[in-house]
Amino acid sequence: MNATGSNGLDCCSDGEMTQANLPDPEQLALRIQRGERAAVASGLNLLDNKLADARSRSARLLAALSGERWLNDGHLIGVTGPPGAGKSSLVCAMIREWRLSGRTVGVLAVDPSSRPELGGGALLGDRIRIKNSSHDEGLFIRSLANRNQLGGVASEVWPMSGLMLACFDIVVIETVGVGQTEIDIAEIADTVCYVAQPASGDAIQYLKSGIIEIPDVFAVNKSDLGAPARKTAAEIARSAPRQDRREDWDYPVCLVSASMNTGIKQLQDHIDRHRGFLVNAGLLGKQRTRHHKAWVMRLLKEEFGTFGLDLAGGLAAIGERLSENRSGQFAEYERMRQHILSRFKSDNSSSNITIKEHHHEQAVI
Amino acid sequence: MVAGQKKRDQPWLMRTYSGHSSAKASNTLYRTNLAKGQTGLSVAFDLPTQTGYDADNVLARGEVGKVGVPISHIEDMDQLFDQIPLDQMNTAMTINATAPWLLALYIGLAQRRGIDPKKLSGTTQNDIIKEYLSRGTYIYPPGPSMRLIADTINYTITHVPKWNPTNICSYHLQEAGATPVQELAYALCTAMAVLDRVKATGVITPDQFPQVVERISFFVNAGIRFVEECCKLRAFGEMWDEMTLNRYQVADPKLRRFRYGVQVNSLGLTEPQPENNVQRIVLEMLAVVLSKGARARAIQLPAWNEAMGLPRPWDQQWALRIQQVMAFETDLLEYADILDGSPVIAAKVSELIEGARTEIANVEAQGGIVAAIESGYIKRELVGSHMNRLRAIESGDLKIIGVNCFQETAESPLTLGSDGSIMKTNPAAEREQIERLQAHRKSRNDAEVRAALQGLADAAKSDENIMPSSIRCAMAGVTTGEWGDSLRAVFGEFRPPTGIDISIDSREVLGKKDQVTELRTRVANTGTALGRPLKLLVGKPGLDGHSNGAEQVAVKARDVGFEVVYDGIRLTPQQIAQAAQEEGVHMVGLSILSGSHMELVEAVLQEMRTRDLATVPVIAGGIIPQEDAEKLLSQGVHAIYTPKDFSLNTIMADMVDVIRECNGLERLGLLQ
Ligand code: B12
Ligand SMILES: Nc1nc2c(ncn2[C@@H]2O[C@H](COP(=O)(O)OP(=O)(O)O)[C@@H](O)[C@H]2O)c(=O)[nH]1
Ligand SMILES: [Mg+2]
């Protein structure tokens, strides 16, 4: 066993034991597809792992999990909105209903991290709001810190949501909505639900900012507060630009109360209806393909930088290759990773250092 | 000269907070204490009783008879007060979420013994607000809980007029870190919320209302800064007088008097050199007896071995003797208020009042104390205050003798005893209580029980007072768990915010700055070496409500770069293991202060093994006697921390090393 340098860069070489602990991706994929909780947990850990070997195995795992299901099945739902609006409480209420109807649910709850100069730590406190106290094998919650300090959703969220899609009927991603996160969540989810806080200008301001596509479904929570909630709902209904790109979608606004458990069913019906709309319009698979492509490029860029992307032929070429192989994008992703890695090695005599340095660079972002 | 000729004031009520194992054992203890000159009873209930579970509920496992007496039904109550005349006793019950129920059992017992409930005197603590903020034995959401409090007040005012139906507590807030100003502000906000709620029921006529105000008593804390604490109590008196006059139009000044009982500060009592706690307790007590105008009505003192575990009878006797020396040997009770007229005291009192007024206005602006609890505001403020306190201890700015300075000590004869110098509760208590309970269930009339429970559920659903149907349940032999569950079915359950999401940006770095920087590097590098940021689960298994340690460990861990999952108190070992799995943590840290660590830690380890998590290290902290610590370590727990480990930085460094070791990395050793 190698001693670890104080800067911890020797991870790849001292990882003998760590590597031995890394699971075999193909076997893991089978267990995940069977819905084994331990396998789901260890798959998520693997996707989170930035050691070079783990990245390879992650890509293999994703490749093994991908297929038609990733284009057509399940429902990826993004739940976003300001802190305290009641997103977690609402997700909890929806889970109760979904579970009653026999659907299994995976949840990724994303919380902000502190700034790196403040240690980069995070408090992940949503589990308990989301979970009913009773034990339930059909529900799996993973909380995640939003480590990307430039705003936006941590890059792990997307592959993790894909893994969950392989074994749960519904996958919910809860994020605090602030600017870039919403853009990102719209690039993951099939359906985006914005949870609004009554009597706060957030939702309106957000709609008016016009920087992004508007969410597919609005839920004004805390309807038990009465008038303020109704007023906010009316304002949103007025502001939601109906002439937006998807002409046939009606952007419903629902009044709900997570605490009183009212309006939940209607909200779920709208969310389901949105998925139906995508399927009927032939949009579901297309949208997911578009999302996959964007994230694969983001992952490649995160790991290898623009230099690495160039080694793989540049963005346009990568995009083309991914488009050609719609249900096997991850197999393609891993091929490109290997290609870039081998180019690194042949281009650079002290290749290891480059990769390690590079690796370190992204680790401290 | 012969002293004692002079006219002396009556001393306060002297109590010892006690109860353990079983009703029978506790009854014996009470009768001995009364024989020793104790003038009132203060009942400590076990956690299942406080949280509305029967002794045979899974959630009660390991907790029955541990930190108090288990009371499951009226026969237990009867045994607890065997040979104690209820009409001559003043009984304080530390009971909150289930207060209407325990009061119903007490009234039911009186009726059975042919005693007029109008003759009963005593107190039910019955303050749910501080349960959400500190004490942790809440069950129902705030709305229904406040209604239950109003119900007991409305009921006792006519049927048990000498009873103090609620005791507004600031004691527990200081134990969770509150400053004197926070103690003042939040206690008074709570009193307002209770009185406003009672008023809103419309049951009390306006001319009866001053009586209600008069029945409100307080339970406060007194810390080691005894001059300031004494001023705090004078401030309480002034503010209460003003509030009851202006807000509630109570004309008679006698009905506006601030009546309070005290338990002195226990948070500052130490595990190292525990004999020093005696002088701390004496000084803290001075704060509440010194000034006649602001003197406590009832006092209970902790024992010298507070931070080690439960007190034995001799330890409690010593605490009682402290009070007796103060009351009967000193000349304290011969004088009028000795602080009246002191400009220094008056200035400090004004300063505290001003601070409290500002904070009260702040809470009112947020919609009152219930709203400020639901939003997490007050809990965050308390966690922040406690964090500041620990930071000061760690940096040495706040000196704690024997802990962060003057640590050298000769061997203490006090701690040499073979019993570990603490009370060991009867290990068979749980089994015996369950047998008793199951026999009781068989012996009662089922039809009567069902009818009584139906009546209770109907009352809960309507706005009928909960007391009459609860008393009927008591007489019918209903159990604590049945009462609790019936109301759970109607009201639902509630978990308040944990308050650990304080923003660190606006606060200074915790503890020693250079150590924190070093820790952040270690955490980050270890995370890099393992491939992902270090993730920690802080878990509180069982019914234990002591959250301070878990909160501060969680806050600190986040500050040094951990990703921390903390879901609050009262989780089952199964829930904790499942969270560890789903969250993919590098370490599970358990915090247990209720004395149930052996049962609970073992159960967590077992649950983890069944989930293939045997390689994830488990550590534990809390009130864990040395002997038990060794056993736990041999069962596979990687480290144990107790109150003597006051440096959170040191604990964090050690935790990182445990993770490193378990993953084949070298330990990095002590911080500089
Ligand atoms: C404060 C306090 C309270 C407060 C708690 C406020 C809160 N929200 O936490 C209040 C007033 C509410 C309270 C109530 C009760 N208390 Co109390 N309380 C204490 C007291 C005085 C201090 C505990 C504390 O907070 N210390 C400060 C924190 C920071 O220290 P700590 O938790 O020990 O943590 C340190 C280490 O242990 C370690 N650590 C702890 N956990 C973890 C976890 C991890 C992962 C790590 C790494 C480290 C770690 O690191 C910390 C840093 O130094 C102790 C006695 C004492 N002096 O220790 C009694 C004590 C724990 N209480 C006791 C009892 C009996 C009760 C009650 C059950 C009484 C009753 N019958 O109703 C109630 C009910 C509480 C409940 N719901 O469970 C007993 C327990 C007896 C036993 N174990 O045998 C004690 C020991 C007092 C006694 N001698 O009787 N209590
Ligand atoms: N009155 C009311 N409060 C709610 C409702 N839903 C959630 N809350 C409260 O709003 C606060 C924030 O809820 P949470 O689910 O954690 O919000 P998130 O930050 O958006 O995930 C909590 O105190 C909840 O109890 C609701 O429907 N009505
Ligand atoms: Mg949330």
Characterise the protein shown here:
The complex is a heterodimer of chains A (365) and B (672). Chain A is α/β, with parallel strands linked by helices and 365 residues long. Chain A has helices spanning 16-21, 25-33, 37-48, 52-65, 68-72, 87-100, 127-130, 157-165, 180-186, 202-209, 227-239, 264-280, 284-311, 314-324, 329-347, 351-363, and strands at 75-81, 105-112, 122-124, 139-146, 170-176, 191-196, 217-220, 253-255. In chain A, strands 4-2-5-1-6-7-8 form a seven-stranded parallel β-sheet, with helices on both faces. The longest helix of chain A is centred in the C-terminal third of the chain and has 28 residues, at 284-311. Chain A is globular and about 65 Å long. By secondary structure, chain B is an alpha/beta fold. Chain B folds into two domains: 10-407, Alpha-Beta Barrel (TIM Barrel), CATH 3.20.20; 513-662, Cobalamin-binding domain (Rossmann fold, 3-Layer(aba) Sandwich), CATH 3.40.50. Chain B has 25 helices and 15 strands. Chain B has helices at 23-35, 47-50, 74-80, 99-112, 129-135, 142-159, 171-175, 180-201, 209-215, 226-246, 276-289, 313-329, 343-365, 369-374, 377-395, 429-443, 446-461, 466-476, 480-491, 513-530, 548-559, 573-583, 597-610, 626-634, 648-662, and strands at residues 13-15, 17-18, 41-44, 90-94, 121-124, 163-164, 167-169, 217-222, 260-264, 298-300, 535-539, 563-566, 587-592, 618-622, 639-641. Chain B has a five-stranded parallel β-sheet with strand order 1-10-9-8-7. In chain B, strands 2-3-4-5-6 form a five-stranded parallel β-sheet, covered by helices on one side. In chain B, helix 24 (626-634) links the parallel strand 14 (618-622) and strand 15. In chain B, helix 4 (99-112) crosses helix 18 and helix 8 (180-201) packs across helix 13 (343-365). The longest helix of chain B is centred in the middle third of the chain and has 23 residues, at 343-365. Chain B is globular and about 70 Å long. Chain B starts with 12 loop residues before the first strand and ends in a 10-residue tail after the last helix. The model of chain B has no long low-confidence stretch (mean pLDDT 94). At the A-B interface, helix 1, helix 3, strand 3 and strand 4 of A face helix 20, helix 21, strand 12 and helix 22 of B. Bound molecules: cobalamin, guanosine-5'-diphosphate and magnesium ion (MG). Guanosine-5'-diphosphate (GDP) binds at residues 83-89, 129, 221-222, 224-225, 257-259 of chain A.
